[in-house]
């Protein structure tokens, strides 16, 4: 018997993070062995016989004490492929009660703390151990009275047959109402047909994430607006996927993205623009994309009448632009950085630069996105 510390690095660092499934499984396993198991927001390995440390989000923040001999560390931040437990531990019912007294760490908002309670009562599953092949689904663990399922696969869409299985599982609830789906990591899709197929699932509110990799056509953006889905607000738009260079992005992709953002804003539809900091090497271009995301995100459903507001006007009203995209992704742009970003675009693509001043709104005309005043 010993004293074991369970440390979920993401949960104790960021708000609104789904608890770690491996931490909950390991806690259940060691409690069966009569160990004293505690979770704590304080990472002090020297105070415990053993420490189980898991970190999923690679934010560049690593504590050197994880190298101490009594620390078992792992997670997606250390390995892009899942490292399974031994089978007995892998199949055990997870024990999320270790998180119960730390609801305030999930969020200070009472409504969000209630959401954590829903998460803890949900059925938590990993569909695949190797990221490709389906494991037998644990139908016996499902709770019809708590109709939420949360999946912890690093990328569910990469698992062969996952979508068909999820549709079958969602339809198996005795009441006839579907189970709701949540996922700790974004579901990656690469074409519009697949995106629509995944959007048919009933999302578990903000616990559902989809990531579209590529650039939407005008027709696809219009279709998203005209045929909205419940999971649309949790869609992450990774528009730099497939771009060859910053020049390619600036000349070919940015004009499309900016028009799409204006159109979605005018329709009061918000999707998350993914700012890939590894792709953007030029600071002015990176700051410009952050600024556009702040402009788009902050003026959806705002009193400022977004369809009347240009990017230039938005910058003139704000000495600093700020936006929290996800709990672990937030950024700001100062006035000096705004000016530098504008000048960069004036030099590298004057057509887009002119849009910042002259286009407050985009509408549909002939099946295409066009300037309302053109």
What features would you describe in this structure?
This protein has 374 residues and is an alpha/beta fold. The chain has three domains: 3-89, no CATH class; 122-211; 214-374, no CATH class. It has twelve helices and 15 strands. A four-stranded parallel sheet has the order 2-1-3-4, covered by helices on one side. α1 (21-32) links the parallel β1 and β2 (36-39). α8 runs parallel beside α9 (283-298). The longest helix has 21 residues, at 246-266. Residues 300-304 have low confidence and may be disordered.
Defining traits:
4-stranded parallel β-sheet, 3 domains, 374 residues, alpha/beta
SSE blueprint:
Blueprint: E1 3-8, H1 21-32, E2 36-39, E3 50-54, E4 71-74, H2 87-90, H3 103-106, H4 110-121, E5 123-125, E6 148-151, H5 162-170, E7 180-183, E8 187-189, H6 192-198, E9 210-213, H7 218-226, E10 235-238, H8 246-266, E11 272-273, H9 283-298, H10 311-317, E12 320-326, E13 329-334, H11 335-348, H12 350-358, E14 362-365, E15 368-371
Helix pairs in contact: 8-9, 9-11, 11-12
What's this, in brief?
With 374 residues, this protein is of the alpha/beta class. 33% of the residues lie in helices and 17% in strands. The relative contact order is 0.08.
What count of helical segments does DSSP give?
12
Radius of gyration: 23 Å
- How much of the sequence is in beta strands? 15-25%
Strand-and-helix sequence, N→C?
Answer: EHEEEHHHEEHEEHEHEHEHHEEHHEE
| Largest sheet data | 4 strands, parallel
Tell me the helix content: 25-40%
Which structural class should the secondary elements be placed in? alpha/beta
Globular, elongated, flat, extended or rod-shaped: what is the shape?
globular
State the strand order across the main sheet: 2-1-3-4
Number of domains: 3
Low-confidence stretches: 300-304
Distance between the termini: 75 Å
Number of strands: 15
Average per-residue pLDDT, rounded, comes to 90
């Amino acid at each position: 018997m010993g004293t074991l510390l369970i440390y979920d690095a993401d949960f104790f660092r960021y708000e609104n993070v789904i608890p770690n499934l491996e931490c909950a499984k390991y806690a259940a396993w060691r409690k069966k062995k009569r160990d004293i198991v505690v979770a704590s927001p304080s990472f002090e390995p020297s105070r415990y016989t053993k420490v189980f440390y898991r970190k999923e989000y690679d934010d560049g923040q690593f504590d050197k004490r994880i190298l101490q001999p009594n620390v078992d560390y792992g997670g997606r931040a250390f390995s892009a492929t899942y490292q399974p437990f031994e089978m007995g531990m892998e199949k055990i019912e997870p024990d999320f009660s270790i998180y119960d007294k730390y609801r305030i760490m999930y969020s200070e908002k009472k409504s969000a703390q209630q959401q954590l309670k829903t998460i803890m009562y949900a059925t938590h599953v990993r569909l695949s151990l190797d990221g490709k092949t389906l494991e037998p689904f644990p139908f016996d663990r499902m709770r019809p009275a708590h109709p939420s399922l949360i999946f912890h696969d690093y990328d569910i869409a990469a698992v062969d047959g996952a979508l068909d299985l999820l549709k079958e599982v969602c339809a198996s609830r005795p009441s006839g109402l579907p189970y709701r789906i949540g996922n700790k990591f974004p579901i990656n899709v690469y074409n519009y047909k697949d995106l629509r197929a995944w959007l048919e699932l009933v999302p578990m509110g903000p616990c559902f994430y989809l990531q579209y990799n590529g650039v939407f056509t005008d027709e696809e953006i219009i279709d998203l607006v005209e045929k909205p889905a419940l999971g649309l607000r949790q869609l992450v738009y990774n528009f730099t996927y497939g771009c060859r260079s910053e020049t390619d992005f600036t000349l070919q992709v940015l004009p499309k993205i900016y028009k799409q953002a204006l159109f979605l804003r005018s329709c009061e539809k918000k999707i998350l623009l993914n700012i890939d900091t590894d792709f953007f090497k030029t600071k002015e271009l990176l700051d410009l994309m952050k600024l556009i995301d702040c402009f788009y995100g902050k003026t959806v459903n705002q009193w400022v009448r977004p369809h009347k507001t240009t990017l230039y006007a938005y910058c003139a009203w704000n000495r600093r632009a700020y936006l929290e995209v996800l709990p672990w992704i937030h950024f700001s742009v100062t006035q000096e950085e705004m000016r530098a970003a504008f000048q960069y675009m004036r030099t590298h693509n004057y057509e887009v630069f002119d849009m910042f001043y002259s286009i407050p709104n985009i509408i549909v005309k002939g099946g295409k996105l066009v300037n309302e005043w053109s």
